[in-house]
Amino acid sequence: MSETTRRAAFWVGVVFLLGAALGGMLGYVFAHHTAMAAPAQMTDAQKRAQKVDRLTQELNLTASQQQQLDAILTSVQSEYKVIRQSTEPQIDQARQKGREQIRAILTPEQKPKFEEFLKRLDEERKKNPQ
Prior knowledge:
Layout: H1 3-37, H2 44-59, H3 63-105, H4 110-127
Helix pairs in contact: 2-3
């Protein structure tokens, strides 16, 4: 094997190893970020309990204060739901308008991919309502 062939083989090996290392590292970071960014959806009661626990630890709340805080948070969550219900039709209308505008700029080949994307997005929205 000539010196040039050995050097080429060496550099191909180095590039391969660096690519494998970088790919592994990026895979780990992506998987870790995805797991951290998308925790399991909690119920309203779980969210409330988590807030009560956190404030109890940070503020050293008494049992009575914890009960009062839970009642306050329950009331606020109910108000949030009423607000969301009243604005949801407007949000849906704006969403549909935007989707139609996007469809208008897509090619025939892109439209089915966009529809599939929207299907996944809508399914995710149903799983994780705000």
